[in-house]
Write a structure and sequence with these properties.
Radius of gyration: 36 Å
Strand order of the largest sheet: 19-16-17-18-12-15-20
Distance between the termini: 48 Å
Low-confidence stretches: 554-576
Helix content: 25-40%
Number of helices: 25
Strand content: 15-25%
Structural class: alpha/beta
Number of strands: 27
Length: 769
RNA sequence: UGAGGCGUCGUCCAACGGCAGGACUGCGGACUUUGGAUCCGCGUAUGAAGGUUCGAAUCCUUCCGCCUCAGCCA
């Protein structure tokens, strides 16, 4: 399993491309960068596994780095906890780093920024800086200190370091652009004064770098190639690149990528809320088995392997999504099923007397730890005429499909005999206090008296079982989305921890070592509590119940959710687009565009929509003009430009393309003259955009000239059918939807140069349709 | 409102112009000395509209919806 190929995702695609391109010399270095201000949880597990997994997959390295740039909230206790958690989950890292180890280098980088005019010391108060930042739709304003001489900023910055200013008196800011559309880029803070004791550097520093300055530098110092973080840092990437671009050169030059953080049903995964649960004592500490922390899950009995399987199950993408908790539970059960020996315990005992049992007789059954694989060993299980069974397994008034004990009914004792309930003992208040049963001595063992349809229940011997508390953990929240409510504590499950104080274990479980796991037959998976359990005085935690198809039929969660909000087509049709409006506004202030907008419609006879699309940007309009000058077919020039060229050019402005407007016009002329098929046209255009050249010459060089020769088309069809023999057979057998595949293959054989209708006709004839 | 990102079965993830697939859940069945496990079967999903194309989840346009950003937190 460990060697199974990990599924690919958008990150592996990026890295595949990087490795193929030889970027960073083919190296792959990742990092997991926690801030030591809390304990790791399941969300971090996804990130850890991702970073460790990527490093392993590409033969690279992964570092553990503590992002300890804020002395106010960070503690050594968390450093130690996090190291233990990461090691438990993912094993060893290549190198251990602390951001604080880089403080001197970061400071030198900051001085360089100041010297080169990219940063300045701002002596304003926090409130002034905040007000000057502007808003999403309103540019900010410059600080009065923005243009103070570099030498003055440098002196101030050095005095900040020397401790000559109080907290908040001044800050170091990047000089970028207070009107930047990305608010993050409006002269962000780089350093602040914080006269606090740091858990590693003590009182050496009184200025500390901000995340946006420190993080890219830490990555660069460590030689990280792929810096993977969560989606909310997308806006910060621009600043990440800004910092590195001004302080390089770097080798490797790190790049930041973002993925969607994990969100899980019936669970909260936010440090703040988890901390609140702990401080308000809603749970018993960070390692309470109900907590989604690594420490809690470890104590709950969940294994690192289960977590790895889960991470693989949910994948990695950029969609914000909430994973069904059932998926998590599936991963846990699947893992535990394979590793837990099975034994018996009774949580809520009900005495059962076997009236037909010889008085005083005690028999010892050798029962397999793994019923389906008896060769893996057995344990002795004592049995007498006085047993204990689960109270839930008896019903005075059973439903029709009841398979357990009921008055007059029979059931098999797991690993033992079939018993029949002859008499029910009840207290004066009606409570059932015991059962009297008769047993069939011939029903023990394989095949002997086997009876179909009989239920099986677990049991322990009354005198020879051992009492032990068993903690029954359940979901911490009753709402699937606790975060959705104003107060997530309202969704706390009052029954998330129930203790079975009267539980009895079969003797073999009494000596379990802390951390030992077992399946308790029919009840679930349990672990001897790593902290509180002792051999001889066991305490068990329930990791998870068994899948239960019987009880779940009672309370059925509704499968169908509220329909996704749909857009209203009628409204869509009548609404004018914002982008369209933006283009109209640009035309209103740009006569050159307005003039073209009208001319395209009148002189060139273009539809209004096309004219609109072409006149939102002067560069596009000019490119179009040049093309039309070279080839008068305005409508098809417009169509090819808008539908194909814009897609192919991507981020590159048209003016910077290898293919000039004139060349593009020449290209469209070829298409319009019928020298090229549309498919061939697309292939040629892609080539021209990628590598330039003269259209007609490239067309000939690439062999894209339209093929009309029937013989050539027939040959292409033959080659396609030969290559797709299996699909062709399936098509002939009736899978008509495969025509597309066969046609596609034939078109490719003809390099897109053949007329599609002709190929289709030839193909259908050849297939005997 | 400015910028950035994301929309595919109930849920999560694939499909990179050519057969919309896998996993979870649910349902049904087989088997069973765990109502477990195992095995088999069952799918009304591409947010909407328009365009390009022989062919669109995928390319273009427009609209709709959701998420993130205005800490001297990370």
């Amino acid at each position: 399993m460990a060697d199974a190929p990990r599924p690919s995702n958008f990150l592996t695609e990026i890295i595949d491309a990087d490795v193929a391109a030889g970027r960073n010399g083919g190296r792959v270095v990742t990092r997991f960068p926690p801030e030591p201000n809390g304990h790791l949880h399941l969300g971090h597990a996804k990130s850890i596994l991702l970073n460790f997994g990527l490093a392993a997959r590409y033969g690279g390295r992964v570092n553990l780095r503590f992002d300890d740039t804020n002395p106010a909230t960070e503690e050594v206790e968390f450093v130690e906890g996090i190291e233990a958690d990461v090691r438990w989950l993912a094993g060893d890292w290549a190198a251990l780093h602390f951001a604080s180890d880089f403080f001197e280098r970061m400071y030198q980088c900051a001085e360089r920024l100041v010297l080169e005019g990219h940063a300045y010391v701002d002596s304003q108060a926090q409130e002034a800086i905040r007000e000057q930042r502007g808003a999403f739709d309103r540019p900010g304003t410059n600080s009065p200190f923005r243009d103070r001489p570099a030498a003055e900023s440098l002196d101030l910055f050095q005095r900040m370091r020397a401790g000559q200013f109080a907290d908040g008196a001044c800050v170091l800011r990047a000089r970028i652009d207070m009107a930047h559309p990305n608010v993050i880029m409006r002269d962000p803070l780089l350093y602040r004064i914080r006269k606090a004791h740091h858990h590693r550097t003590g009182d050496t520093w009184c200025i500390y770098p901000m995340y946006d300055f420190a993080h890219p530098l830490e990555d660069a110092f460590e030689g990280v190639t792929h810096s993977i973080c969560t989606l909310e840092f997308e806006s910060n990437r621009e600043l990440y690149d800004w910092v590195l671009d001004r302080l390089g050169p770097w080798d490797p030059r790190p790049r930041q990528y973002e993925f969607a953080r994990l969100s899980l049903g019936y669970t909260v995964l936010s440090k703040r809320k988890l901390l609140q649960l702990v401080t308000e004592q809603r749970v018993d500490g960070w390692d309470d088995p109900r907590m989604p922390t690594l420490a809690g899950m470890r104590r709950r009995g969940i294994t690192p392997e289960a977590l790895r399987d889960f991470a693989e199950l949910i994948g990695v993408a950029k969609n914000n999504s909430t994973v069904d908790i059932g998926k998590f539970e599936f991963a846990i059960r699947a893992d535990l099923e394979g590793r837990c020996p099975k034994a018996m315990a009774v949580l809520d005992p009900l005495p059962l007397t076997i009236t037909t049992w010889p008085a005083g007789k005690v028999e010892t059954l050798e029962l397999p730890w793994w019923p389906s694989e008896p060769e893996r060993g057995t344990r002795p299980v004592p049995c007498s005429g006085q047993l204990l069974v689960e109270r839930d397994d008896f019903s005075l008034d059973p439903p029709a499909d009841w398979k357990r004990l009921a008055p007059g009914g029979s059931v098999r004792l797991a690993g033992g005999w079939v018993v029949r309930c002859d008499e029910v003992l009840r207290a004066s208040d009606g409570t059932v206090t015991g059962l009297r049963c008769s047993h069939d001595p011939a029903s023990l063992g394989d095949g002997a008296g086997a009876r179909r349809g009989l239920g099986t229940i677990h049991w322990v011997d009354a005198a020879r079982s051992v009492p032990a508390p068993v903690r029954l953990y359940d979901r911490l929240f009753t709402a699937e989305q606790p975060d959705a409510a104003p107060d997530f504590l309202a969704a706390l499950n009052p029954a998330s921890l129930l203790v079975a104080e009267r539980a009895r274990l079969e003797p073999a479980l009494a000596t379990a070592a802390p951390g030992d796991r077992h399946q308790f037959l029919r009840l679930g998976y349990f672990i001897a509590d790593p902290a509180d359990s002792r051999p001889g005085a066991p305490v068990f935690n329930r990791t998870i119940t068994l899948r239960d198809t019987w009880s779940r039929t009672a309370a059925q969660p509704t499968q169908r959710r509220a329909a996704r909000p749909r857009s209203d087509p009628a409204a869509d049709a009548t609404l004018r687009g914002r982008r369209s409006e933006a283009r109209a506004e640009r035309r209103a202030v740009t006569p050159a565009l307005a003039e073209r907008y009208l001319r395209y419609q009148r002189a060139l006879q273009l539809a209004e929509e096309l004219a609109d699309l072409l006149t939102g940007d002067l560069a596009v309009a000019e490119y179009f003009d040049a093309a039309v000058k070279a080839h008068a077919g305005a409508a098809s020039v417009a169509r090819w430009l808008l539908n194909d060229l814009l897609g192919l050019s991507g981020e590159t402005p048209l003016a910077q393309l290898q293919l000039s407007g004139t060349g593009f016009g020449a290209f469209v002329a070829l298409v319009d003259a019928g020298k090229l098929t549309p498919a061939g046209g697309k292939a040629l255009l892609a080539d021209l955009v990628a590598s330039g050249g003269e259209p007609a010459a490239r067309m000939k060089a690439l062999g894209l000239e339209k093929v009309e020769d029937a013989g050539a088309i027939a040959a292409a069809v033959e080659r396609a059918l030969a290559a797709q023999a299996a699909e062709a057979a399936r098509y002939r057998a009736g899978e008509k939807k495969l025509l597309g595949v066969l046609l596609g293959a034939a078109m490719r054989e003809a390099r897109g140069a053949a007329d599609a209708a002709a190929v289709r006709k030839a193909l259908l004839e050849r297939l005997g349709a």
